Each structure stands twice: as structure tokens, then as C-alpha cells.
Amino acid sequence: MQRFDGDLTRQEGLPEASIERAIELLRTGRLHRYQTGEHESEAAALEREFAAWQGSPYCIACTSGGYALFLSLLAFGLEPGEPVLTNAYTLAPVPGSIAHAGGRAVLVECDDDTVIDLADLERKITQSGARVLMLSHMRGHLVDMGLLQDLLDAHGVALIEDCAHTMGASWNGTRSGNFGLAACFSTQTYKHINSGEGGLLITRDKTLAARATVASGSYMLYERHGSGPQAEDFADAKFEMPNCSGRLDELRAAILRPQLADLDAQVMRWGERYRALEAVLRRGNALRLRERPPQEQFVGSSLQFRVPRASAAQCETLVSVARARGVELKWFGAPQPHGYTSRHSSWRYVDSQSLPATERVLSTLFDIRIPLTISAADCELIGEIILASVSEATS
What is the pTM of this model? Predict the structure, then answer.
């Protein structure tokens, strides 16, 4: 019996430049982003560098991606109880951020490719009267962004992108995150750059940027941000926005900057591993993988597949058999939330909603992480184990 003896949860160590800068900072004790006096802080430098890399004028560094999502809605001016459209297929921080901001999540179906269903989105825009869509690029899959933009523009709906899984991805040459009013990224350990926890909010709107900067906990030190609006743009925000402290600290900013410089090369490495795993899994007749459209440049840090004809019992067996052979699969059809994986029926802070298409897709949907600590050869072995496990579970 084939077995994988590696660890799919272990990330690569941080680059030496991150470690050296962290030690230097610890020796100074200056870990607060506004403690640097006239010198540019690490957090401000990260904002400036990420904005330049992303191609966006404004960036606010935050404590987490989930906080960045909340902050974007707060700065947007969301009213208590206001509807916010979002994917039914996403992770808990997305509806959680809507609840945190006082909004009401309106869940939109996903299609067979696990991206947001544009027909259902249009129906729910009309039904809900929502002003904003918080679009989760769940597990790194991009919907046709041109069609989406046309739809939202036609109905006057603003777009906030959740790019936790698409830092470094693009659609038709435009980076993920550059399509709407704002976008939010995560630097949690399992994302594409790693500070344990952390987030980044970008926008092209100077009013939203000013409001978000003040609300992030900048006090009256907003001019010390590395990629923010002009001082006069804070004239109203500094009086109107509450201090909801969630700014990024110096230590995490310092260890992120060298990783950002390496990110494009890391995306290439993820792609090699993804393609190795994908090539093996495509030999399995019982599996269904999404066909990636040519406009989509994705980051292959995870892979999703469905076993459309499997029963719930067979899906449970598949998870158990694969785990016994060293391969940890996440199953989105599980009746109870587990680890980072949950679905809308577990979010009791969200109104119960009928989502039959999403339920059908999630019932046989599996997910596997692809850390850079494993090789392309490891990915081929993992693929063989998954195929064998599917065969055993469904026979």
C-alpha cells in the first residue's frame, strides 16, 4: 500500500532576511508601527511596497484578512442590518466580517466549477436591493471577472474582493484585487506570504482609504502610513470614524517584506506542484476537476476535486482511507464543521437560506493543501493515493 509520510500542514521556514530583520527589531523593542519617529516604519514600508506590487494607490496593513474585510465594509458605510451579497461557498471569516460590521449576509449559489453563479447573483441583487458584493475568490478560483463587472455596473453594486486565496493571481492580465472598490488579502500562515496572522486592504478610492485608515487605529497619525491619501482627504474621516484598533505591528510587517519580494517566484513553484498533482488526478474517471479558463492565472497552493457520484458514506470513507495513507483531505460536505472547513448551515449568525445548487456541489467536494515543503514527486504520489482511495471508497 502506498503511503505519504510528509506533512501537508507544514509551511516553509521564513527567509533569512525576515529572520534577521525580526531579530534586529526585537533588540530595539520598537514593535509599534508609530514608535519610529521620523523614520518610515516597517508597516508603512510594507503598505508602500504592496501597493506598488499590486498596482493600487492605497493600502492599509491590518491584523488579519478577516479584519480587513470588516474594515472595508465599515469604511464603505454599511448600515446596521444592511444586506451584503456573498458566496455561499466560502469560509467563515467572510460571513463573519459581514456580521461584525452589522450587516446581513445574503448568500449566492455557486456553480459546478465552485465559482459564484452569476444568474443567481443577479436574482439576489434584485431581491435584496444590496449595494455591495463581497466576492470570495474561494480556494483561488476566479469567476469571469469581465462578465461580473458588467453585471455589477448594470445594477450599481460595489465590489469588495476577498483575495485571501488569490494573492498573485490574475484574470486576463489584471491582478486579482484590482477589479472593485476594495480588496482584502490575508497573510495568515497558510496563505501566500506568512506572518502567522495579518491582512492587507487595498483601494483606489481615497475616501474609503482615509476612513479605513482612521478606523484601523491610526489615531491622528494617519500621515505616517506608507500608501495613504493626502492629509486633506482625512478632514471628515478623522472625526467620523471610530477607532477599531486592528493595525499591523512592526514585527509582522518586517517579516512579510522579504516574502513579498519573493512572491512571484513562489507562485511559479506552486504551479509546478499543482500541475504534477492535477495530471495524476485527471486519470481518475470518478473525479471531476475544474477546467481552468485561459484568462485565469491562478496560484496553485491548493487543489479541489469532486466525486460527483459518491454518497455521503462513501465520502466519509474516502477521507478516512486517504488519512490512513498519510493524505489529509478536507470534505466540504461533512455534517459538522472541522478545523478551517465549514459551510453555511453551520453559520447560525447568518439567516437560514435555501441553497440547493451549492449543497449539491459541496456534498462531494474535497480540498487538499499544496505546501511548498513537498516536491512535485510528492504530489504525484499523493495523486496516486487519492485515486486509490477513491476507488476503494466507491467500489
Answer: 0.96
According to the model, what pLDDT value does residue 139 have? 96
pLDDT 10s digits, 246-285: 999 999 999 999 999 999 999 999 999 999 999 999 999 9
Which are the contacts of 39, defined by CB distance < 8 A and separation ≥ 6?
Answer: none
Contacts of 69 (CB under 8 A, 6+ apart): 93, 94, 97, 98, 134, 160, 162, 184
- For residues 83-93, give the mean pLDDT: 97
pLDDT value of position 362: 97
HSE at residue 338, side-chain half, CA atoms within 13 A, is 12
Residue 37 confidence (pLDDT) above 90: no
Mapping DSSP onto H, E and C, the string for the chain reads: CCCCCCCCCCCCCCCHHHHHHHHHHHHHCCCCCCCCCCCCCHHHHHHHHHHHHHCCCEEEEECCHHHHHHHHHHHHCCCCCCEEEEECCCCCHHHHHHHHCCCEEEEECECCCCCECHHHHHHHHHHHCCCEEEEECHHHCCCCHHHHHHHHHHHCCEEEEECCCCCCCEECCEECCCCCCEEEEECCCCCCCCCCCCEEEEECCHHHHHHHHHHCCCCCCHHHCCCCCCHHHHCCHHHHCCCCCCECCHHHHHHHHHHHHHHHHHHHHHHHHHHHHHHHHCCCCCCECCCCCCCEECCCCEEEEECCCCCHHHHHHHHHHHHHCCCCCEECCCCCCECCECCHHHCCCCCCCCCHHHHHHHCCEEEEECCCCCCHHHHHHHHHHHHHHHHHHHC
Could you write out the three-class secondary structure of 53-93? Answer: HHCCCEEEEECCHHHHHHHHHHHHCCCCCCEEEEECCCCCH
- Which strands form 170-171's sheet, in the order they lie side by side? 174-175, 170-171, 296-297
Mean local confidence (pLDDT), 337-363: 92
Domains with residue ranges and CATH for the chain: 16-257 (3.40.640.10), 263-394 (3.90.1150.10)
Q: Provide the pLDDT for residue 257.
A: 98
